């Protein structure tokens, strides 16, 4: 027949601490009930009697007594786990965020933007690691990291190596000849307006994609500086100089 479960002999300090918790009460109901279990067991009460006294399950009383015999008064403050262990390590979360903010075409995928479904499917089969995450968990992770679904931004930059020198020349002419007006025109294939897309990016920092500045065939740009009186075709130009345009670098 197995021996009854009971606490070991209490030291003077342990007995005084337990009595103090029971007499004065405690802000933690867990500490209070556990202290009552230990004192009742030290007084010779059996497990069924203690369970009825504190309105707890008998297995719970046995676990508390065994835990006290192992670690002492530290059993009054159990370190319960916060739920199921994490499936993703911090390194995995960084990898997920980095993948979401990378264009799919750069990773060999045949589409231009991630949806949650496509991103979850890609993470499950990526080479070298397997990341299993639900769509809702992925949505929450991206939200915590400040990554949102945004429209991309486009802009144009000139590839001309003499761009700065030409801009300096235009400003010099505008300063020396205030009666001159510069006119710019572009001719070539239609559809030159860039079209933005969508992507996952840091909040308020959408992905910026340069618009194409090169045309495949028959495209060019003309620049002319004319007096501000009347053009050869008879159209009247502004008498005053137009505001200076600051070109983006």
Explained architecture:
The chain is an alpha+beta fold and 249 residues long. The protein has 3 domains: 12-76; 90-145; 155-227, no CATH class. 38% of the residues lie in helices and 13% in strands. It has helices at residues 12-24, 29-42, 47-54, 58-71, 90-100, 116-125, 135-144, 163-176; strands at 147-151, 153-155, 180-187, 198-202, 208-210, 220-227. The strands form 3 sheets. The chain has a two-stranded antiparallel sheet. It has a two-stranded parallel ribbon with strand order 2-5. The chain has a two-stranded antiparallel ribbon with strand order 3-6. Helix 1 (12-24) packs across helix 2 and helix 2 packs antiparallel against helix 3 (47-54). The longest helix is centred in the first third of the chain and has 14 residues, at 29-42. The chain is elongated and about 110 Å long.
């Amino acid at each position: 027949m197995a021996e009854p479960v009971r606490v070991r002999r209490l030291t003077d300090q342990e007995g005084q601490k337990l009595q103090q918790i029971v007499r004065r009460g405690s802000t933690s109901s867990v500490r209070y009930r556990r202290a009552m279990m230990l004192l009742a067991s030290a007084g010779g009460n059996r497990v069924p009697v203690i369970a009825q006294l504190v309105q707890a399950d008998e297995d719970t009383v046995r676990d508390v007594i065994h835990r006290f015999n192992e670690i002492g008064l530290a059993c009054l403050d159990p370190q319960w786990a916060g739920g199921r262990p994490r499936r993703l390590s911090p390194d995995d979360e960084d990898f997920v965020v980095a993948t979401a903010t990378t264009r799919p075409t750069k990773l060999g995928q045949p589409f231009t933007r991630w949806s949650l479904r496509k991103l979850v499917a890609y993470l499950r089969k990526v080479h070298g690691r397997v990341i299993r995450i639900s769509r809702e968990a992925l949505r929450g992770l991206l939200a915590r990291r400040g990554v949102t679904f945004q429209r991309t931004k486009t802009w144009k930059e000139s590839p001309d190596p003499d761009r700065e020198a030409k801009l300096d020349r235009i400003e010099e002419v505008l300063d020396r000849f205030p009666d001159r007006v510069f006119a710019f025109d572009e001719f070539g294939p239609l559809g030159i307006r860039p079209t933005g897309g969508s992507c996952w990016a840091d909040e308020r920092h959408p992905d910026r994609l340069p618009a194409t500045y090169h045309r495949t065939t028959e495209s060019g740009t003309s620049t002319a500086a004319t007096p501000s009186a009347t053009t050869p075709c008879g159209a009247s130009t502004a008498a005053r100089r137009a505001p200076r345009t600051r070109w983006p670098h």
